[in-house]
C-alpha cells in the first residue's frame, strides 16, 4: 500500500480520508472465461456491505457492459462474450429497501400514536417512547422488561463513563499527522449559552471532557 493524498466524499457529504492506495490485478469471470486488468483501489476505514467498488473508468478499462435492469455483466473474452448474472441475494436485499407507493399510502393512512413512559423514578423528565402498534399487553410487558433492566441505560453523564473501548469508541475523522486547526468562536444567544455551559459542566464533572 502506498500513501494517497485524496479524500472520498460520502453520499451524505461526509469526508473520509483514505489510508492509502493499492494496485491489484482484478480478474472477473471463471477459470475458462475471464478478463483481467490492473486497478487502483483507495483503502478506507468504513463499514460497508461491499469488499470493493469499481468505478466507471475501470469498467471501461476491462470493457464490461453492465445492465442494472437485467442484473448482469457482459464482457469480451478470447472465445466470445461472457455473461455474469447476479445471485438472488442482491435483488432480495434491494427488495427489502424499496417500497411501492401504494404501501407507503397505506402506512400513512394508519397512524399509531406512540406512548411516552417514565421508566426511572429518579429521572422523571426522561421519557421513553413505546410503539403505538403494540397491544396493551405488549406495552405492559415491554415496560416491565425495561424497568427490570434500568442499569443498562445511561441516565446521566456519569453513567457514560467506564465503557470499554472494545465496545464503543469515538474518534475524530481527521487525517493523521496533520496539525489541528482552531476554528473561529461562534457566539450564541444568552439562553443557549447558559444551557450549553450547564451541559458542558455535567460532562466535565463526569470526567468525559476536560
Automatic annotation (TrEMBL):
This is Reverse transcriptase domain-containing protein. It comes from Tanacetum coccineum. The lineage of its organism: Eukaryota, Viridiplantae, Streptophyta, Embryophyta, Tracheophyta.
Amino acid at each position: 500500500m502506498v500513501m494517497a493524498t485524496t479524500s472520498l466524499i460520502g453520499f451524505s457529504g461526509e469526508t473520509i480520508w483514505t489510508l492509502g492506495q493499492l494496485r491489484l490485478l482484478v480478474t472477473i469471470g471463471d477459470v475458462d472465461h475471464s478478463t483481467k486488468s490492473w486497478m487502483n483501489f483507495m483503502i478506507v476505514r468504513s463499514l460497508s456491505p461491499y469488499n470493493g467498488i469499481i468505478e466507471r473508468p475501470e469498467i471501461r478499462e476491462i470493457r464490461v457492459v453492465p445492465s442494472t435492469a437485467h442484473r448482469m455483466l457482459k464482457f469480451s473474452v478470447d472465445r466470445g462474450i461472457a455473461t455474469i448474472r447476479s445471485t438472488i441475494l442482491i435483488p432480495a436485499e434491494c427488495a427489502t429497501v424499496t417500497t411501492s407507493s401504494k404501501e407507503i399510502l397505506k402506512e400513512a393512512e394508519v397512524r399509531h400514536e406512540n406512548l411516552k413512559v417514565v421508566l426511572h423514578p429518579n429521572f422523571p423528565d426522561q421519557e421513553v417512547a413505546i410503539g403505538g402498534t403494540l397491544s396493551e399487553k405488549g406495552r405492559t410487558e415491554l415496560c416491565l422488561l425495561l424497568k427490570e433492566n434500568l442499569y443498562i441505560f445511561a441516565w446521566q453523564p456519569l453513567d457514560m463513563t467506564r465503557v470499554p473501548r472494545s465496545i464503543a469508541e469515538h474518534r475524530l475523522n481527521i487525517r493523521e499527522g496533520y496539525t489541528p486547526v482552531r476554528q473561529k468562536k461562534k457566539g450564541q444567544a444568552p439562553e443557549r449559552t447558559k444551557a450549553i455551559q450547564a451541559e458542558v459542566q455535567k460532562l466535565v464533572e463526569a470526567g468525559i471532557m476536560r
